[in-house]
Amino acid sequence: MKIKRGDTVIVISGKDIGKKGKILTAFPKENRVIVEGVNMLTKHQKATGPMQEGGIIHQEGPIDASNVMYYCDKDKKGVRVGYKFLENGDKVRICKVCGEELD
Description:
One of two assembly initiator proteins, it binds directly to the 5'-end of the 23S rRNA, where it nucleates assembly of the 50S subunit. The protein has no helices and 10 strands. By secondary structure, the chain is mainly beta. It has a domain at 8-78: SH3 type barrels (Roll). The strands form 3 sheets. The protein has a 6-stranded antiparallel sheet with strand order 6-3-2-1-7-8, with no helix packed on it. The chain is elongated, with a radius of gyration of 17 Å.
């Protein structure tokens, strides 16, 4: 997966197409991500004690990583992510449109 936690992404397919948000959690083995404000699920929670009350909770659900693209602030659109090796041997992510380093 070329995107990771903390990246700003834009949804390119599904019911939330066009929404932008920050990645809260990434699951590389399942190729899924949880994006802030995207794929909101409704969960009915029962009260489990005197301190925690029950009710309807809205929370983000995971979506497939192929349905999101990295959002480049410089280009103001979703872009593909590539890799480049620096002179000292470090591997960094780059924007394939403007060539800017992302890490």
